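Worked example

This section walks through a single chain of length 420. The input is the sequence exactly as stored; nothing has been trimmed or padded.
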Amino acid sequence: MSLEIKNLDHLGLVAGIIDEIGIVDKINELIEENHTEKVTAGKVVKAMILNGMGLVSSPLYIFQDFFAGKAVAHLLGEEVKAEYLNDDRLGRVLDKIYEVGLNQIFVSIVLEMIKKYQLNLETIHLDSSSFHVHGEYKNSGEHQTIKITYGYSRDHRPDLKQFLMELICTGDGDVPLWMKICDGNESDKKQFGGAMIEFKKQLQFDSLMVADSAFYTKENLQIVNQLKWLSRIPLTVKAATLLVKSMESNDLIASQIPGYNYVEIKKNYAAVEQRWLLVESHKRKVSDLKKLSKKIQKDESACQQKLRKLSSQEFPCITDAKKAASRLLKGSKYHELTNLKITKLHQSKTGNTQNYKVEATVAICEEKIALEKRSAGRFVLATNVLNTEELTGEEMLSKYKEQQSVERGFSFLKDPIFFN
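Given that input, the structure is written out below as tokens.
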């Protein structure tokens, strides 16, 4: 009697979940194929998922080698053999997926997941990230769908071309609901509003859309006026910056979430009635104040250096000396010149020329620093849900903190072990 041992590892669990959701049947339903194929399109896609979750690098041309020594019959079915999963078969299935539309297939599977696991879609989260690639990637050809090119790199690799991915996840379990692949040089600010509208068309759910500050532009607020949204406001919005710097700490109330205080105000921005929530994080405040202290020290060193240089210069008249002194610390956020004196040095032999020198002291500008200290640890959230019973201030904060769900999704996709 011969005994043959083959591995399942964690792939048995992955295969079980794929079968539980019904991904194979759904893909076979959407993709029409010749029934003479030895392995169905659904089983091929299942094999691709198992390969991706196998946490090894396996290019298409050695794809079938990945399944060597594995229990293929248990993972994919008795009729499937590793040699059937060659690059030609995979390529034909990928072409079929392109023809049907990846988004349509993805959304169909998402709907099955929602039913199967009874996902809570009260809150969903939108974000985007860049994925850098190696290679030339010439942008030509009739089947060109996206432009892989240079753009703002979240991966800090501006030397490499990239593409962008927009991703929407549930607040309940971080389950991906919708995705879109975009050109490498597209801007979040221009795409987020359209992404929300597209998601709404494909998945008819009355969810609260949560997004980061890239969403919050006048154009996007007008585009999504029929949707419920919650976003962080970028501090490039002057009204938000003014609120952050002007609100006294005594006016904030303690949140039920430990370490946070907040105050709510009503605001009209971009002709949209909104509720703004000024939030102060204790932990972030400590961090910001440490950073501020370092910035002040660095700024003081630079200012002292400028003053030494100015003090060594001579000016032909008092007016020029005063102008030079007034310009000296214009770039400083934290310091100013005090005890300014213009001293006459000497006369020429003819007695017609006098030289002048600047004397001054670099001092901390307490007013500027007080504003910086007050704004430390603060950020502003906004929503167009005006009914406080539908969305309380506490809920605004807690649901925005769940934005990490989509960020965790990107972290997983970008892991070198997975993204092969």
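What to look for: The longest strand covers residues 335-347.
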